[in-house]
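Fig. S4 source data, part A: sequence.
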Amino acid sequence: MKNTTRVNHPPAVALSADNRPLVAPIYQSVKFSFDDTDQTLRYQRGEREGFFYSRTSNPTLTQLQRLLSELQGRDDCLLTGSGVATIAASLLALCKAGDHVLVFVESYGPTRYIVQHLLAKFGVTHTMLSIEDKPGIERILKDKPTRLVIFESPTNPITKIADIEHLTLHALAAGCLTVLDNTFAGFHNHGDYDIDVYLHSLTKYASGHGDVMGGAIIARGEILNAMRKEIGPMGAALDPHAAFLIQRGMRTYFLRYERQCANALDVSEFLQQHPRVLRVHYPGLPSHPQHALARRQMKDFGTVVSLDLDGGYDEGGRFAESLELFSIAASVGSTESLVMPPQLLHGGTYTAEQRAQSMVGKGTVRLSVGLEDVGDLKADLAQALDRAFK
């Protein structure tokens, strides 16, 4: 064999059955091969297990899929290249022309955009309510044939808590699907509710380090098998190296989440006492209007704390810019603390009524609390509040 051939067919290295790596290798290969055509065809007909093309399946992705679906308490998982890709792919796979979708004012901006604009292009209609409007939810699901309800809990950024039992009860009675963006709550929350499809941005708590993007769709086998037929041709698959990094992040998922939740509660209690803070939005506080509901539904209260300052854009901007340990950046869930000033939260996609329902004001600031020493975080918040109102 000439060297020009050898470099494309390097010597194989095989491990014996009793010699295993403790960390699974990255299968950074687009293509997999069987010994003959017959076995390839058997795989394509579903008559044998294996891998053929990484856009469809890959061993590194399969390991992560099995872990995440097990944590969420469901059969199967499909991975995509970003959290938003899971939202778009799921809605496109589950909806058709003539369907109706119930979505909420408090939903993530891209979710609202996809429902209002992308699905609308294909003849899917929608109703948008507040997640707190229980009579409206009951009325819509009773009076209007609805394909699915898509929601999140806690919401972003005000951390409202959806009454999941109420939503699923009325959705089931109406014969429509429930789709929960469970990113803020995490894989260990809400699995005991009758949710059809869970969505997660793996960019957040699964990765945990702000250095890789990904998304997960988790559901019962029969639902996900039907979705996979629609989503596969979209080509939104996660890269194996990204899956490996997310799998590595998941090793410390519970340790990180527990510490960040403890820090968030401490920070929220501190902010609640500050005279320049009008309101703190954190489900772990007894003052949160849905604290009892959060205690009933969740094992913890999350890592996102939002606050309403006694001021507007100017004070909120100065506060964010004065922080030294909180970086002005998008996303949540990574090890470092982050801040979003009101100028970045106060988008122009709401009507006046929807803006009031969202409760995002001109002095609203969102914090994603990280793993730093909580005393250092509180000292940083105190000095930034002082500078913001000088």
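Fig. S4 source data, part B ends here. The first strand starts at residue 76 and ends at 80.
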